[in-house]
Amino acid sequence: MCISILLPIFNEERYLVECLDSILAQTYPDWELLAVDDQSTDSTPQILQDYQQRDARIRSFRNPQKGVIPALRLALEHSTGALMTRMDADDIMAPAKLELMYKQLVAHGPGHLSTGLVEYFADAQLGQGYARYGEWINKVNREGRQWEEIYRDCPIPAPCWLVYKEDLLRAGAFEPDIKPEDYDLIFRFRRIGLKPLTVPEVLLYWRDHEDRTTRMNEAYDIQKYFRVKLPWFLELDHDPNRELVLWGAGPRGKTFATMLNEAKVKFRWVCDNPKKWGQQIYGVKMEAESKLREFGPMQIIISVASPIDQIAIKALLDELELKAGTDYFWFC
């Protein structure tokens, strides 16, 4: 069964050869690579041409419309495989990546998604944020809590999933013009009910470097992630029969409060800062977090990022016997 690898590329001459070599080294041989050059100005087109001549499984295309989403659409349009995955041109596949995900996915059939563990690396020093994210995403995937943790951050690596083509199309593939496109797609996988499966091995070596798209492109800044999270929460998990509570009055909390007001969703707002208690902020009265003990049925959005504060928050939530992913949701 052929696996179609969708690979959008823009100016990746420094890393593209390593990426392509890792694909050629796969232990699973039945794959095709649809590589789309997103109007690169470096030697990317020549590298693709050279590899295409070396191996008939590689096909490259020039993207007539600039952007990663049109590039992914073009790759999908030319794909012939029954199974779909994507890859980033600055990352490296472990040799058994496709084989292990293929075996796992085919054993369970359509309606499932296969992923695996990742290992971040860097040419220089690995950023602490990426290191923490790598530890978090591996923990979530080992424990099978992808959908429970989906609002904290993207729980499935964009270059490390495998699905049936029919499921990708059912989820809307790359039709929405929404960025971060990888995060939005994972929400759509959840919406159609895909069940995540995890290969408990490192399948992807994820490169951090100074020119990484998520560092350089404003379409991937933290505010854009917020703009993806909240609408999906309101569609997938919000229970209008329960009070909605926003926990946290820092910059993140204020962003979510603004968005809830824009969506005309009523909410109560709690924080641990006595100076703010009783104040009207954005038209909502700020209350003490201890007041949660007096609230009725509720759902809580937690916008507090401090790991130390999150420990205290979790203790109170446990005391109230609230359940993650149903009664409360970590948004950072």
UniProtKB/TrEMBL annotation:
<keyword id="KW-0328">Glycosyltransferase</keyword>
<dbReference type="Pfam" id="PF00535">
    <property type="entry name" value="Glycos_transf_2"/>
</dbReference>
<protein>
    <submittedName>
        <fullName>Glycosyl transferase family 2</fullName>
    </submittedName>
</protein>
<dbReference type="InterPro" id="IPR029044">
    <property type="entry name" value="Nucleotide-diphossugar_trans"/>
</dbReference>
<dbReference type="InterPro" id="IPR001173">
    <property type="entry name" value="Glyco_trans_2-like"/>
</dbReference>
<keyword id="KW-0808">Transferase</keyword>
<feature type="domain" description="Glycosyltransferase 2-like">
    <location>
        <begin position="4"/>
        <end position="168"/>
    </location>
</feature>
<comment type="similarity">
    <text>Belongs to the glycosyltransferase 2 family.</text>
</comment>
<dbReference type="GO" id="GO:0016757">
    <property type="term" value="F:glycosyltransferase activity"/>
</dbReference>
<dbReference type="InterPro" id="IPR050834">
    <property type="entry name" value="Glycosyltransf_2"/>
</dbReference>
